[in-house]
Amino acid sequence: MARTANIFARVEPELKEQAELVLNELGIPMSNAVGMFLKQIVLQRGIPFEMKLPKRSPLAYEMLSKEEFDNEIQKGMDSIANGQTISAQELRAELKRNFGI
């Protein structure tokens, strides 16, 4: 067996669980996935994916006060009442364009 070194990293429990679910479906142990990531860093001489800030950040409701949250909800209700709606397909395209999601 090849020599190995330990890496310790702190991550959010939810992120770890979500990643484990995906990796389990792929049949890849977490340690192998980390090793693959590090190998790609070496091969590509950098982070192996594009990193950039989104054009705009989506509104994070957990950062809003109750009053700010209520105002945002009211804006949405007013838009609906004024007929300012878009289809789900248009919404997906806008989210991808504006936030990359």
Automatic annotation (TrEMBL):
Protein name per the record: XRE family transcriptional regulator
InterPro entries found in the cross-reference section: Arc_rbn_hlx_hlx (IPR013321), RelB/DinJ (IPR007337)
Keyword annotations: Toxin-antitoxin system
Family note: Belongs to the RelB/DinJ antitoxin family.
The organism's place on the tree of life at top rank: Bacteria
GO biological process: DNA-templated transcription; regulation of DNA-templated transcription
Organism of this sequence: Anaerovibrio lipolyticus
Pfam families cross-referenced by the UniProt entry: RelB
